[in-house]
């Protein structure tokens, strides 16, 4: 009996020792499957792998004075500073903003937002591989919140292929890549929530944006918005409401491309001009406040493209290139956004009859901008020689004009146009041409030792 038990015990022990796949530790987990599943490489993963290296971090640095402590300073000197010593300073840089950008060409052109770079004096761009490259500003367009940088390197760089934002489908997948809260190359996904979206940002209305629920946070500004194939369809720009509210906005790449090409080639954005001034229509009976169904033409410049196309005072513009302007401000945006030399289709309502016209947008010259500024303000300006240069002086103010209503007088000086210093008529014309994109002409007017900024609507 004892021998039989010993044999059975040894057989049981042998069974334990030779059982295939058994673990020496009864509670050990099975080894993981090290073979990657092809199902994990979704279209989103493939798009991110394709494009991620072209998205960069942008650091804007402002030139500042840094106080240099004197050696061997006493405790009193450290506490009370200037009372005991003459302070010394050196120049240095301090980071003023962090944002994102996207490389759009192999030679290093980068698209980002104007508000990322507007306060900077020096710019560092961080790549996915850890490199930092100094960048210079090629041009900016504050009215569209776009800027173009150029990386100072001769190396070929990864870049993203641009797509077409006019083909976006509501509900299609979008991918946002950027630098939210300084977290490098963060990827989020969502869908196209809306296209051609207008929204309020403070006192300003912004027009024609892509709306997405892909998470966009502070630091994402200037980053890439991609379609499922990894093509750039927008530049992430703004969020609405609280952070992570799921409502983000991007500049459509079709508009961004045109603006970037102007900035690279001309250093500024060329503005479309039709020579047509408009005003809001009153709300229709029973309609919501601000619902106009178009804008009314109040003036047509003689010899302008609008006059050549047969547009008349009193016409109601119901659409511009298929978009119905709900305000005079939106009409001006649509016109400024037209490509120079391109034909635009306007649908008009004239005495109950609908009329379609084709009008060619031309570039607004500096002289034409100055004439529009004179019409908007009622001011006639002239140069006056002073010691060391010249100043712009008000020669006359038209009665009942906008300038007369705010109290501008003959002899006042005009020092700035939209925060750009001007001292000659030529400088005023150039600044007025740039200012028209914002829809406002803001003059710094000086009388004696007092100066005040005054804003005029500028069509």
What does this structure look like?
- The chain is built from 10 helices and 25 strands.
- With 459 residues, it is of the alpha+beta class.
- It has 4 domains: 53-151, Trypsin-like serine proteases (Thrombin, subunit H, Beta Barrel), CATH 2.40.10; 165-266, Thrombin, subunit H (Beta Barrel), CATH 2.40.10.10; 272-363, Pdz3 Domain, CATH 2.30.42; 366-457, PDZ domain (Pdz3 Domain, Roll), CATH 2.30.42.
- The strands form 5 sheets. The protein has a 6-stranded antiparallel barrel.
- A hairpin with a 2-residue loop joins strand 8 (186-201) and strand 9.
- The longest helix has 17 residues, at 2-18.
- The termini are far apart.
What descriptive keywords fit this protein?
Thrombin, subunit H; alpha+beta; 459 residues; globular; six-stranded antiparallel barrel; 39% strand; Pdz3 Domain
Topology:
Blueprint: H1 2-18, H2 43-51, E1 55-68, H3 75-80, E2 88-103, E3 109-112, H4 114-117, E4 122-126, E5 132-141, E6 146-151, E7 173-178, E8 186-201, E9 204-212, E10 224-226, E11 232-239, E12 248-252, H5 253-266, E13 272-273, E14 276-280, E15 295-300, H6 305-308, E16 316-320, H7 328-336, E17 343-350, E18 353-360, E19 362-363, H8 366-377, E20 379-386, E21 389-397, H9 402-405, E22 413-417, E23 420-421, H10 425-435, E24 440-447, E25 450-457
Antiparallel strand pairs: 1-2, 1-4, 2-3, 3-6, 4-5, 5-6, 7-8, 7-10, 8-9, 9-12, 10-11, 11-12, 13-19, 14-15, 15-16, 16-17, 17-18, 20-21, 21-22, 22-23, 22-24, 24-25
């Amino acid at each position: 009996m004892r021998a039989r038990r010993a044999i059975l015990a040894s057989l049981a022990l042998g069974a334990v020792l030779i059982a295939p796949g058994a673990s020496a530790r009864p509670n050990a987990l099975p080894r993981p499957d090290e073979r990657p599943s092809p199902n994990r490489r979704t279209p989103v993963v493939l798009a991110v792998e394709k494009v991620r290296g072209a998205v960069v971090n942008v650091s804007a640095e402002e030139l500042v004075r840094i106080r240099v402590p004197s050696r061997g300073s006493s405790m009193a000197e450290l506490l009370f500073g200037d009372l005991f010593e003459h302070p010394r300073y050196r120049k240095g840089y301090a980071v003023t903003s962090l944002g994102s950008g996207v490389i759009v060409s192999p030679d290093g052109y980068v698209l980002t937002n104007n508000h990322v770079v507007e306060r900077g004096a020096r710019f560092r761009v961080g790549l996915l591989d850890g490199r930092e490259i100094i960048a210079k500003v090629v041009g900016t367009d504050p009215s569209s919140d776009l800027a173009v940088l150029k990386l100072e390197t001769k190396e070929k760089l990864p870049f993203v292929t641009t797509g077409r934002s006019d083909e976006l489908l509501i509900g299609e997948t979008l991918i946002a890549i950027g630098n939210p809260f300084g977290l490098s190359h963060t990827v989020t996904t969502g869908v196209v929530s809306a296209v051609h979206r207008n929204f309020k940002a403070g006192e300003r209305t912004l027009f024609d944006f892509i709306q997405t629920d892909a998470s966009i946070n502070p630091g994402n500004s200037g980053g890439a918005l991609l379609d499922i194939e990894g093509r750039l369809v927008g530049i992430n720009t703004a969020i609405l409401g609280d952070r992570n509210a799921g409502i983000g906005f991007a500049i459509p790449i079709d508009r961004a491309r045109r603006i970037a090409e102007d900035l690279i080639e001309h250093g500024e954005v060329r503005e479309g001009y039709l020579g047509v001034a408009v005003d809001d229509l009153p709300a229709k009976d029973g309609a919501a406040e601000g619902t106009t169904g178009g804008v009314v033409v109040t003036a047509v410049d003689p010899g302008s493209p609008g006059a050549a196309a047969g547009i008349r005072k009193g016409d109601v513009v119901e659409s511009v290139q298929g978009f119905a302007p709900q305000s005079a401000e939106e009409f001006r945006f649509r016109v400024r956004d037209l490509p120079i030399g391109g034909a635009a289709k306007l649908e008009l309502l004239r005495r109950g009859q609908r009329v379609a016209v084709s009008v060619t947008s031309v570039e607004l010259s500096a002289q034409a901008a100055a004439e529009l500024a004179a019409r908007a303000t009622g001011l006639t300006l002239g140069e006056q020689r002073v010691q060391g240069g010249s100043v712009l002086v008000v020669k006359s103010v038209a009665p009942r004009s906008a300038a007369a209503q705010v109290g501008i007088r003959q002899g006042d000086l005009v020092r700035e146009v939209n925060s750009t210093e001007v001292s000659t008529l030529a400088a005023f014309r150039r600044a007025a041409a740039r200012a028209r994109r914002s829809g406002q002409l803001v003059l710094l007017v000086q009388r004696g030792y007092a100066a005040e900024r005054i804003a005029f609507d500028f069509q």
